[in-house]
Specification:
The protein is α+β, with helices and mostly antiparallel strands. About 55% of the residues lie in helices and about 15% in strands.
Length: about 525
């Protein structure tokens, strides 16, 4: 037989054998360990009972024969008879009660000069109610049970008359236990080996051989031998599987014959069908070419229509905005010019008037840019130090922020330098901060932060976070659509965020909204970093 270890390890026989062997081995070892461990506990329990019984025997004999300890010789014979030659009970000491709750040695089965006792330490054991035993370590090594048992007074309700102390050596029983343990160690490997061999034979007979025959029949069938049959005569699941395989092979043999006949008919039919297919294919190719041309025309028309719609909307919005805003701006600008020509104005007032006029001029520039929305604006990029820029912008926002009860926090690194158009950045941040203030009618906080993104693109991620009302989830997908706004009527045109998106995209960045209703909104966008030129 060709035995290949790797192939066998992947087989069902190997998996069942390994799992069953591990389980049976674990059970066998556990049973052996439990038996050995229980035998040790039984030895210890037996010796404990033995030392208690020896102490009780001495106590009973003293009470019945010599409660006054008048005949130490008879007591010595008793102790020698109990602590005999087998030395299981290797020493028994008998003490009598003396004045002051102390004891005095009467007799010992061992050398009385070597007996270790202390009258004061043994006194408390005179009043215990039952035998008290414990395992102690011997000086020469090993362990022994030590038992204390008070000698009852023959007269009722009187204190005990003495104390019995007995020792039972465990060395002899440890030798017996060690012998059993070594015998178990020697017996366990042959038992496990026998279990493995028996398990191997049973699994091979029950599973491997039937499966091997079934696999060989499948391989023959796969190679085209439709008369292949599985020779497995069993009444279990494998036998049922072999029966079903043979039935399938028989049906496959019939189907193969029918297929061959059908193939011949199809070949004859294909001979005439091929010409018709070629003709139909030529017509389909012509139609596909026409369809491709139509798709190209539709695409061009759709693109042109989209451009026209964008231009129409932009033109309409620009004209409306210019009409509604331009006239008041011109009036305000004229009055400002009149005020500036007046003399005697305080220097601070003159400075504020100049600031107001510059912002009105900026609004006028925005109106002109809105009129040019149909054309892509020409960016005037340059190095923009974001921290200094935001500081300048905050001076413009200061009166409005105080009025709305809003505080701005800037968390921008000093090395944040952008490659951006300053005017468009002003429009971008004005729109975003205005939106944030509109979302906080009762006041709140706005945080402007920036962080460099990892990667070769050289981008900064800028976040405008407010503590306002947030945006409802159903409105988030539409916030960048023109003319869509969540503000009350008269307070929003729906153009702020679309314009912000065009500005960011025009700088090569991207923009997104993070918001949760009731917990504020964050507008997150990326802008390119300025390329520093080494001097």
């Amino acid at each position: 037989m060709d035995f290949r270890p790797l192939a066998w390890l992947r087989s069902l026989h190997a998996k069942l054998f390994i799992v069953t062997a591990l389980v049976t081995s674990a059970l066998t070892i556990a049973v052996a360990y439990s038996i050995v461990r229980n035998s040790r506990r039984e030895f210890q329990e037996y010796t404990r009972r033995l030392v208690v019984e020896a102490a009780q025997t001495v106590e009973t004999d003293v009470v019945q024969r010599d409660p006054q300890f008048k005949d130490p010789r008879k007591l010595e014979e008793l102790l020698q008879s109990i602590a005999g030659e087998d030395r299981a009970i290797f020493q028994i000491d008998v003490f009598k009660r003396v004045e002051g709750g102390k004891v005095e040695l009467v007799r010992s089965s061992g050398d009385e000069d070597q007996v270790d006792w202390n009258a004061t330490d043994l006194g408390p054991y005179l009043d215990i109610q039952s035998p008290q035993n414990s395992l102690v370590e011997l000086e020469g090594g090993g362990q022994a049970w030590k038992c204390y048992l008070p000698i009852a007074n023959p007269r009722p309700h009187r204190p005990s008359i003495g104390l019995v102390r007995a020792y039972c050596d465990l060395e002899r029983w440890e030798d017996v236990w060690q012998a059993n343990l070594h015998k178990t160690y020697r017996t366990l490997p042959p038992v496990l080996a026998g279990e493995f061999i028996l398990l191997w034979v049973i699994l091979r007979w029950l599973i491997s051989d039937p499966l091997s025959g079934l696999v060989k029949a499948m391989e023959r069938l796969e190679q085209g031998e439709t008369d292949a049959r599985a020779q497995v005569q069993r009444r279990d699941e494998l036998g049922y599987l072999a029966t079903r395989f043979n039935a399938m092979a028989q049906r496959l043999q019939r189907a193969t014959k029918e297929r061959e006949d059908l193939i011949q008919e199809i070949q004859a039919f294909n001979a005439g069908l091929q010409d018709r297919i070629d003709s139909a294919l030529g017509e389909v190719q012509d139609k596909n070419r026409e369809l491709g041309q139509m798709v190209e025309r539709v695409s061009l028309l759709r693109e042109e229509l989209s451009q026209q719609e964008r231009l129409a909307v932009a033109g309409q919005l620009s004209a409306t905005f210019a009409h509604e805003v331009g006239t008041p701006l011109n009036l305000v600008n004229g009055h400002l010019q009149i005020l500036q020509t007046q003399g005697g104005l305080p220097e601070k007032t003159t400075e504020r008037l100049g600031l107001i006029q510059s912002q009105i001029q900026r609004v006028s520039d925005i109106v002109r840019r809105l009129l040019d929305m149909t054309r892509r604006p020409q960016l005037s990029k340059g190095e923009l130090h974001l921290e200094a820029f935001l500081q300048d912008m905050q001076a413009l926002w200061a009166p409005t922020l105080v009025t709305h009860g809003v505080q701005i926090h800037r968390l921008v690194p000093p090395d944040c330098v952008l490659d951006a158009d300053r005017k468009q950045m002003e429009q971008l941040f004005l729109n975003l901060v205005n939106n944030a203030m509109d979302a906080m009618p009762e006041g709140g906080e706005i945080t402007l932060s920036a962080a460099r993104l990892l990667g070769p693109e050289g981008l900064w991620e800028i976040r405008v976070q407010d503590s306002g009302q947030g945006i409802p989830p159903e409105a988030l997908p539409q916030v960048f659509k023109p003319m869509f706004t969540t503000k009350p009527e008269g307070k929003g045109t729906g153009l702020g965020l679309p314009i912000c998106r065009e500005i960011v995209r025009g700088h090569g960045g991207d923009i997104r909204i993070e918001s949760e209703a009731g917990k504020g909104t964050a507008v997150v966008f990326t802008l390119p970093e300025a390329k520093m030129v080494a001097v």
